[in-house]
Amino acid sequence: MNAPPTFESFLLYDGEKKITCEQDTKVPNAAIFTINKEDHTLGNMIRNQLLKDPNVLFAGYKLPHPLEHKFVIRIQTTSDYSPQEALMHAIRDLMAELSLFQERFSEAVKEKKDRLD
Amino acid sequence: MPYANQPSVHITDLTDENVKFFIEDTDLSVANSIRRVLIAETPTMAIDWVKLDANSTVLSDEFIAHRVGLIPLISDDVVTTLQYPRDCICSDFCTNCSVEFTLDVKCTDEQTRYVTTADLRSTNNAVLPVTSKHRDDDSAEYGETDEILIVKLRKGQELKLRAYAKKGFGKEHAKWNPTAGVSFEYDPDNVMRHTLFPKPDEWPKSEYSELDEDQCHDIFRRRFDV
Fold it and tell me: Minimal Cα–Cα distance from B205 to chain A, Å?
């Protein structure tokens, strides 16, 4: 009776933004991004990619509540680098990695199919 | 690209129903995200709107509609060209966003009539229930088809329905989940100590394990055991 519609886990409401940014005042060079209608699939990947960057001092994500489909990611970087830049680089690296994976996977499938025939 | 990984892929098994592959030089999180996306975010076709014109079966309307929705449909090429119904410009359904199905069965003889996926007729030959793929090849196995049973009819009972199949993905409803099972394995010998075996000898060794036949998992534990 109180079940929310299932498409709520991935469709944005009217006027809802996909990603919002908030500066964290407690420490220098830190920001908190809220990404709507996404879950661990994206959050874990982005967080791990950010941790590879040596200029990133802190990177962590959480899903504030399992019934609300969004996650919050907090990034703190060194003084010459902004969290927004770090996030952009992380996303760009992930996209490159995944497109390379897609290419190599389709090649491998074609090769395997040819070998089977 | 400062810190991107360069993954490499090797496929070990490839059949119509199963793929097994190795992926190297990548993060655990990427492998996990791929697994999650395969289960919940790859689009497929499934029946999502059912109108029953006649139902004198023992199952209720919504019961039959639920069962019909769960029937897996072959969606290989169609799914990439079809639009999501909520994005389509048409008001109800059209050929750009859906595929129509009909089912019309009436039991007239004394024997129980099985209504199966063979009775479900599609308007698009590319989108058919999965079981129809094998019907033409194995006509030798007469009694043993793998058609999915929808409902059984007695003499005089009838089932007539119209349905539309739409594009969707697992996050919305499990009927759009294309996989039967996705799993991935890493660190077969527990070198990274991500897990703790309470009784190591009870756990079967993985086929990718690099330990000898008689060595069991706790070979690494003994060194650090307190």
Answer: 28
